[in-house]
Amino acid sequence: TDNQRVILQITDVNDEPPYFINRPLPMQAVVKLNAAPNTPVFTLQARDPDKDHDIHYFLVRDRTGGRFEVDEKSGVVRTRGSEMFQLDMEYVLYVKAEDQNGRIDDKHFQSTPEERLSIVGGKRPPQFYLPKYEKTIPENAAKDADIISVKAKSFADREIRYTLKAKGQGAGTFNIGPTSGIVKLAKELNFEDVRQPHIYQLVVTATEDSGGFSTAVDLTIKVTDVNDNPPKFDLPDYQAHNIDEDIPIGSSILRVKARDEDSGTNAEITYSVSDDHFRVDNKGIIYNRKTLDADDNNAYYEFMVTATDRGEPAKEGTATIRIYTKNKNDEEPNFSQQVYTPNVDENAGPNTLVTTVVASDKDGDNVEFGFVGEARKSGQFVIEKMTGVIRLHNGPISLDRDKYELNVTAVDDGNCCPGGQHLRHTSTAVVVVFITDVNDNKPVFKDCASYHAKVEESAPNGSPVITVHATDEDKGVNGQVRYSIVQQPNQKGTKFTVDPETGDVTTNKVFDREGEDGKFVSVTVKATDNGDPSLEGVCSFTVEITDINDNPPLFDRQKYIENVKQDTNVGTNILRVSASDEDADNNGAIIYNLTSAANPGDLEYFEVQPESGWIILKKPLDRESYRLTAVAQDRGFPPLSRTVDVQIDVVDRANNPPVWTQSIYGPIYIKENLPVGAGVISVKASSGIKDNPVVFYRIIRGSTAQTNKHDTFYLQQRPDNGDTWADIKVNHPLDYESIKEYNLTVRVE
């Protein structure tokens, strides 16, 4: 929808007649006896609400013999002729005003009614602006307050003085300003005072100064009642005695009476009461609107009755009502509650207190308690007749149900009133005894031994692992279980979270099987019940971190260099390339192959065993050097791979390499707290050159931390009786939890 503002321009239609605005009325004027022709004596004034009016003034009837004329446009009435005007003679003209743009038909225009203009020769008395004056005032009008203003016009242009006189009662109640014409209140009024009239008939006289003429006008002032008196009751309090409490609803009990000194609606009274057990009619008669009860309020009712007048604002008066009632045995015992819900522990013994039922009788009777049928015992429960105390009986107790329901009775003895014993009253209540569970069972993970969870490494935080479940044989809150993760000692945060309500275990981190998390992670879940004090049970199980192919193979050296004799036989193992993969199964299984992008012909001389990594000579050597690239590729999906450069240098047939005293050293076991600089092992090789025993050692830096990528170990040469040893020593602190094994390669030349 859409809204558009529309402006309507209303054009005026000439449909309103003109009207005279001359005041006072009727129109009066004077003319000097020797007035010259064309002397103005009066000006007619008319208005027309139409925009396009064209007002003209006309003399309709002339009763003066042509002594006056009216200017059609200005409305000025002028004299005609030179003859003297006669003293005190009245000259009467009838005039009107026409709107000559407001045509009614071909011959008529909109016009004022004819008005009479009275012109007197010489002098005439003053003229009041109104033919009579009336005013209504409230009785609480303030003394000296302005009541009304009267005004008269002097045809001789003299000052006028006003006087005021009462026709009957009320002299001196009002006064008038001699020159202002303002009538003021001279005395305080009281509508309820019979000595003061409600209507004042006054006469105001206007007299011209210097012995001029005077004229009088009637002034009527009416005084109205103000609601300044509240209703008053004849008595300050009313009483009714010995009213039977079982009287029928609607019975009249007593009558009240209030009076109001005001008049009219200010004196009309309605009644109301403050207690909804009763009502009152407009005559002041009070009735009961509910059944009375002598057992309440000390056997009497006390309330207020209010009389309200219909003034504006209304006023009210009050009186106290006391109604005294007679008691009868008409009330049954009343239990303090209809249902009692005590709790008893499941292991409670004989004579244990269960609860106390309480009942009272408004009639004042004594009350006796029992079970239904006036029995004192019900199952394992007994009740005391006079006190209402309920206990477990003095015998074997077996509370094997969740609750027990007991129906108890209260019977009055009728001693409140004469003859009350002949009509005894009984009431009943229900006692529901809830057997409270004792928190003596802790939560148990019945399937804890069968929990075998797996989660894939690199799975996002919040991945589901397993749902654990614990049961608690207790009842209610004692059997309600909440789950939590037990944090391992010296562990920052928890690696798993558990939903406290459902037992759903989820990851709280992204696991790395090859990192510090390892292949298996232990988790302990605790189940706690809501008892007080609470009990708890725990379940520990192992979560297997399953592998994904996220680690490529890593060679144990950054480059392989090997010297080979020129006459080495075909089929000889030249050197072995070795790579490791931290992944598991096929993700960590490695196969090898060779490439040679720079010198493809070098591949004709060598081959590599795919499983072992041994490079084997397959063709006699005929050059000084060969450049190969060894490739290690795992069997993951997709597979990952790494390469390493292999340099094979050909040496003279007579060249003899150094010879190790041992081909393999180890395994060697050391403590993780071995200090930096401590020796690990000493190795030795003898020179292959006759008469030149000098050899040189170095540790080959591998591609992984386990193959000394970070120089965890260093080598120090040591001469000893013509031999040269290589001492392997610790270069950086060791940490068993980070790396458990190192593979070191030592090269000797």
TrEMBL record:
Protein name: Cadherin domain-containing protein
Primary location recorded for the protein, binned into one broad class: membrane
SUPFAM superfamilies: Cadherin-like
SMART domains recorded: CA
Occurrences of domain Cadherin (ranges): 23-128, 129-233, 235-335, 336-445, 447-555, 556-660, 670-748
Pfam family, one: Cadherin
PROSITE patterns referenced in this protein's UniProt entry, alphabetically: CADHERIN_1, CADHERIN_2
